[in-house]
Amino acid sequence: MRTYAGHSSAAASNALYRRNLDKGQTGLSVAFDLPTQTGYDPDHVLARGEVGKVGVPISHIGDMRALFDQIPLGQMNTSMTINATAMWLLAMYQVAAEEQAQAAGEDPAEVVRALAGTTQNDIIKEYLSRGTYVFAPAPSLRLITDMVSYTVADIPKWNPINICSYHLQEAGATPVQEIAYAMSTAIAVLDAVRDAGQVPEERFGEVVARISFFVNAGVRFVEEMCKMRAFVELWDELTRERYGVTDAKQRRFRYGVQVNSLGLTEAQPENNVQRIVLEMLAVTLSKDARARAVQLPAWNEALGLPRPWDQQWSLRMQQVLAFESDLLEYDDLFAGSTVVEAKVAELVAGAKAEIDRVQSLGGAVAAVESGYMKSALVASHALRRQRIEAGEDIIVGVNKFETTEPNPLTADLDTAIQTVDPGVEAAAAAAVREWRENRDADPERRDRAAAALARLREVATTDENLMEASLECARAEVTTGEWAQALREVFGEFRAPTGVTGSVGLTGGAAGAELSAVRTRVAELGDELGEKLRVLVGKPGLDGHSNGAEQIAVRARDAGFEVIYQGIRLTPEQIVAAAVSEDVHLVGISILSGSHMELVPEVLERLKEAGAGDIPVIVGGIIPESDAAKLKSIGVAEVFTPKDFGLNDIMGRFVDVIRDSRLTAAAPA
Questions:
Q1: Taking a C-beta distance cutoff of 8 angstroms, is the pair 131, 91 a contact?
Q2: Is 166 known to be catalytic?
Q3: Most buried of 96, 128, 131, 253, CB within 10 angstroms?
Q4: What is the largest CA-CA distance in the chain?
Q5: Which residues form a coiled coil (predicted)?
Q6: Calpha distance 73→565 (Å, rounded)
Q7: Helical pair 596-609 and 625-633, crossing angle rounded to 10 deg
Q8: Which letter does DSSP use for residue 244 in this model?
Q9: Which of 7, 167, 352, 374 is catalytic?
Q10: For the chain, what percentages of helix, strand and coil (3-state, to nearest 5) are there?
Q11: Residue 374's closest CA among 166, 125, 188?
């Protein structure tokens, strides 16, 4: 039983973890901030506004020591949501455990072999949905392969990869796509480990036994429960037939769940509680496909960062189910159900067909590089949005039963979510500079760090396992940014396909009529101005959750706008340069990480400096009302949040904002 947690600093997160463990939490699930996830130190330009926001910053071994102070790692089960830099975080975790063992007079090697937990380490889904990749697929797969091979031999209780269909569903995947793309990722990883030859053939079953999955559970209870049974069936078949694993225990489908966040609503957020409970039941009721670990979001996640009390509420939901109900006492309740068997068979057949399609393209890596999987997810998500707008998919409190009594939980929105002290970033940046300066002031420590980084770069050019070189970097006090930069120099960086090049379109019904009306308005204003309306959709900072930006870009194109969308991880300077060079009529900024109050003002200021201060800027994301008011007061034309689900309405507002800005500019003084 876990809650996904971490923010501000290692010391603050350590206090939160110890408090949660005292409340009965049985494992830790560490959220890292975006600079840590993408390999930057807190003082890097791209880290601006992102330090400590969506997780804890871990810049070096000193931070890792502080994060787990007084938490014995040899007795803990720790899940780390980390991907591109997973090897680095595992290296620091191991070194911290060794230091704890030495301080306690224990054998460090024994403690390391006892370490239990998971590094997420699924880079394929990062290209498709979450956006915290750094390197191209091939070197990224090499890092994963090295970690799998190392942990099987040296940390046998560790799950080196947690294949994540969770984020695929968040990006719009249907159950069939969720199963198929997760299995395709597993095939790519297992094939790579097998072909690398670091693990003896007779031990390959141990590799399979260490592969775990991280799955989403949406509110469609029966379909989600059947999806898990389909996963179990397909994994058993795949590992038996493709990899020849004869031990049924090694073939077990081992999965944890974070129930769906995509379906959580800002409108009437109290409804999220029953959604979370239903989703938890979908992965616990069926014993033959029951999750091994469950973590639940908080009711107010669509509003902002949950507080400790909100996390406690989610933990108590699990505890009531486990200790008050009799749900865990019986054999599978659905065995022999013809309804369930038929639905599982349908999902298995659909998933197999999609797996075959991915394999025919050359496998998961090739399907990422070609943009096939990303485009498929963007299209699925667009269709889901259309069904919601058309009222075909009902979301209580959003497109039906919208009237509500005043909500006491959100009466004071500024206290209904956790906020991060604005001084956190400056403190972290100063601390990492001090760490590097103190290290380099000692010639012996400086030389050891330099030698460790040189060795890391050298090993990266060979087929040698990179884990030992990373462990030496951790012991030599290298920083996260230094480790990642060394590998960037060898592997380069990568920009994944955005998936928004096509057009989905709307046909029929009220939603189709609304889109047609907006298209007419776009064309009329374009004719009036004598040019096609151009919109730039930008994602500044390190926030890689691009689903909303992609849907805006797709719908804007369908509405007749010319759309400039360059993907994730742009600096305000790059966004402004693109806006000026493309001579756009509107700039749309999408931020979900909480860095809007740092990055949006910088975009506005740079537009003014470039002589383009008349280009209106709108902002979308998880933005509290008080912040929205502040943004509007400094010149933002409009702020959209998750409650603004009608994309055609948003497109109409685009037209209004452009018209207002151009008419104001053309008005006589």
A1: no
A2: yes
A3: 128
A4: 82
A5: none
A6: 44
A7: 10
A8: -
A9: 167
A10: 55, 10, 35
A11: 125
Catalytic residue among 7, 44, 343, 545, which?
545
Distance CA(341)–CA(631), nearest Å, equals 52
Of the candidates 543, 558, 596, 627, the residue annotated as catalytic is: 543
pLDDT at 293: 84
Residue spans of beta strands (DSSP E) within 195-344: 211-217, 255-259, 293-295
- When the pLDDT of each residue in the chain is averaged and rounded to a whole number, the result is 92
Domain boundary among 435, 465, 497: 497
Give backbone dihedrals phi and psi of 163, rounded to 5 degrees, phi first: -70, 125
In this structure, the answer to whether residues 451 and 588 fall within a common structural domain is no
Which secondary structure element, helix H or strand E, spans residue 208, and what is its range? Answer: helix 204-209
Residue range 40-78, pLDDT digits in tens: 999 998 899 899 988 999 999 999 999 999 999 999 999
Q: Please identify, among 330, 357, 391, the residue that sits at the C-terminal boundary of a domain.
A: 391
**Of 53, 70, 74, nearest in space to 6 by CA:** 53
Candidates 227, 381, 539, 585; catalytic one: 539
Amino acid residing at 669: A
User: How many Cα atoms are found within 13 Å in the side-chain-facing hemisphere of 43?
Assistant: 12
Q: Tell whether 517 is covered by a domain.
A: yes
Range list of H helices, 120-174: 123-125, 137-154, 166-170
Q: Which residues span the domain enclosing 169?
A: 146-154+161-391
**381 catalytic residue (yes or no):** no
Q: pLDDT value at position 509?
A: 66
**Are both 324 and 433 inside the same structural domain?**
no
Please, which contacts does 312-319 make with residues 24 or more away whose CB atoms are closer than 8 Å?
A: 312/20, 312/23, 313/273, 314/3, 314/276, 315/1, 315/3, 315/20, 315/23, 315/24, 315/25, 317/276, 317/277, 317/280, 318/1, 318/280, 318/294, 319/1, 319/24
Q: Does 125 qualify as catalytic in the annotation?
A: no
pLDDT at 665 over 70: no
**What is the per-residue pLDDT for 594?**
82
User: Which uninterrupted H or E stretch holds 353?
Assistant: helix 338-360
Average pLDDT over every residue of 509-530 = 89
What's the distance, CA 573 to chain centroid?
25
Cβ-contact 566, 578 below 8 angstroms: yes
pLDDT digits (tens, 9 = 90+) for 595-616: 899 999 999 999 999 999 999 9
Q: Indicate which residue of 150, 166, 181, 372 is catalytic.
A: 166
Structural domain count, the chain: 3
